[in-house]
Amino acid sequence: MPALEVAEKLTILADAAKYDASCSSSGVKKRDSRDGKGIGSTLGGGGICHAYAPDGRCISLLKVLLTNSCIFDCHYCINRKSSNVRRARFTAKEVVDLTLDFYRRNYIEGLFLSSGIIRTPDYTMEQIVEVARSLREDHDFRGYIHLKTIPDADPELVAAAGRHADRVSINVELPTASGLQRLAPEKSQSRIEGAMGTMRSAIEDGADARKRFRSAPSFAPAGQSTQMIVGADAATDRDIVSRAASLYEKFDLKRVYYSAFSPIPDASTVLPLRRPPLMREHRLYQSDWLIRFYQYSPQEVSAAADAATGMLPLDIDPKLAWALQFRDRFPIDVNRAPREMLLRIPGLGIKAVDAIVAARRWRTLRMEDVARMTVSVKKLRPFIVTADWRPTALLDRADLRPLVTPRATQLELFAA
Questions:
Q1: Single pTM value for the model
Q2: For 377, phi and psi rounded to 5 degrees?
Q3: Dihedral angle at the C-alpha atoms of 239, 242, 246, 248, nearest 10 degrees?
Q4: How far is CA 416 from CA 407, 408, 411, 412, 413, in A?
Q5: How far, in Å, CA of 276 to CA of 271, rounded?
């Protein structure tokens, strides 16, 4: 590999890292350097990598690969061994220096580091860990660090990553074992899940030690996450929802991220020619939200998918799709129904539901009261009862879906 300047390496390896979506920092332990010691802070809020904190602030981090060279030949990966892309590789010191330099310039608030596999999984994991170790121990860096770990690496190296990083993640890559075997035969679902199980145990042990001993070191305080590629294999949305729910339950994950497959140059013939609609990725995130925050079971979310194809509808959100499938559960009286039933009403978010529960303690709610708590009541009308509104035959109409489906609008490029 010809010698490259650090700026050239950064251009190549930052671009190569854009396919990795899992870089949230929610749940991170609070640290800062206002006492004059160390450098950096994690007080930025709930999201990093050009995400938004709860108060609306955009927070960013240096998101980069250690190298885009790889000994594996996964069909779906732009950096696979047989891919004809320009290669580059950072040394551990170069990543450390870049992180500190970018932080001092106020460009970033943390580091997200992943890598292709070079030489061996253990060698690559050693380099990744060395970056985090040097930042924490040599420079007392207190900002956010997220490390992508390698399932095939020695467990001691993966454990070392957890001691230095706020969050760790291990990608399951594809939703099904058959898809992984077909598109990434050098990887194993059992090894991936084994590494995730080991990490869960280490995180739980670390949390338990912190409860017992105040001096115990933190171990991946922001937990672990994973990512799966959508649309590269034949997995349906029902398969993906089921797989994600299983991962949450088995490994206590903080997040499952979905990344729509993107066609790559010189692609293998086993890959689809077109990328899936980005709206499919969006609907999967919405279904994930229903399970995590709206108390839906995975089976209920799967029931919103088409019975024949197993795919979630693209024109309406999964919550509305579920409501249309189970009209017998509606209408719901907003003045009497428990909170868990209010959460099932299409068009009502968690904040609106909490506002309704609080307001109805003092007065009987009318439609105009509900309208003030949500963006639009058009989607709500067939599914709710208020003091002055009952949908009567509206819920039983055969053409209900077109009535509640949001109208597609053309966005203006130069809108004021």
A1: 0.86
A2: -95, 0
A3: 110
A4: 21, 20, 12, 9, 9
A5: 12
